[in-house]
Amino acid sequence: MTAEIVSVGTELLLGQIVDTHAPVMARLLAECGISCTRRTTIGDNWDRLVGSLKEALDRSDLVVTIGGLGPTVDDLTRDGIAAALDDKLIRVPEYEAKLRDFFGARNIEWNPSTARQADRPECGRMVDNPNGTAPGLICEKNGKVVIALPGPKGEFDPMARGPVREYLEHLQGGGVIHSRVLRIVGMGESSVETRVRPLMDGENPTVAPYAQTGEVHLRLTAKAKDREEGERMLDPVEAEIRSLLGNHVYGINEQVLESAVIDLLVSHSQTVAVAESMTGGLLGARLSASPGSSRAFLGGAIVYTVKAKTELGVDENLIKTAGPVSAEVAKALAEATRTRYEATYGIAITGNAGPAPDIDGKPIGLTYISIATPTGTQVSEHRYRGIREDIRHRATQEALAQLRTQLL
Ligand code: ATP
Fold it and tell me: Closest residue (by CA) to atom 27 of ligand 1?
């Protein structure tokens, strides 16, 4: 069974609100074993709405709409569904009476357009909305299904996760689409793809790479009877990928690199401190983000200026001669922070994240990362491209990856 999601609302197209409901719906469909093949966003325009619903119904067995069920003139979804299904809208008197009671009890003036919420396509049934006035809809006609859900989060969430999910499970008659994400660091997307290429031809489970800033994710997906069977199908694929990529796989699903590093430090009973110039505290923020990180992350200094660097213990003359963006200063900072905080490892990052073209002749993206360890200090030079935000994130990612390598 294939499904499409149609999010309705001009505010989505204008970028005024972010479509957070469609991903929730997509996950729900996957959990019910239904393949979501397309997501569309459409404005509050009659012709385009009906057109896109008809197209979706031509392509897919099931269409889920989000939003546009309210009482105002720009709420077109209910009427649009009836038109796309070539069905009649009928008014449900019991529902209209319920709405009138609701408005009466709250002394809200009755507006004739409010009664539109008591309409449904003849082939449909209403889905109760305990947190609002617009009910949802489930319509079945000519072997196709349309489900309509309201836009407000407090209404959408409970309806989607409750009665709609129950209906979808029944419709599909069992089965899930179960995914696991393997997180990889220290390899580019194409190198990962080259190594796991033979596994990417499988149909069930499937393996697909996607690049993130400074890391690559491999999504493993199985169609299975239930979650447990899905897990069992993914286990051997994960094992094979781990044997192909070795230590580059640092985590699964939600685990982020910083928490993998903290776990390693804790398991070795070791600690880390930072000295951050270009990243201004980003590395410290990442290291302190996971619960329990104080067992391994001792603290650090944001050494943005020359004065701050010297206060941590770096020789001012060295900064003058080598420049603040230099291997020498990175090394001195890493050693100084290691000593100051009495940590096993001291990490320093200094560089030029832009947008000013250069600092003392050092181009945008030039970054030095240093790790002081009990047996010596290493420094690496990097030339990142991209915007300031990306450069700063990549530098923290590289620093964490290097520390992880040290720990392994
Ligand atoms: P209402 O009765 O409030 O008119 P509705 O079903 O007509 O409900 P919309 O008018 O389309 O819903 O949207 C109401 C609000 O719900 C939007 O302003 C927005 O805050 C939120 N919303 C709508 N669609 C989405 C979406 N796809 N993702 C996140 N929020 C949404």
Answer: 19
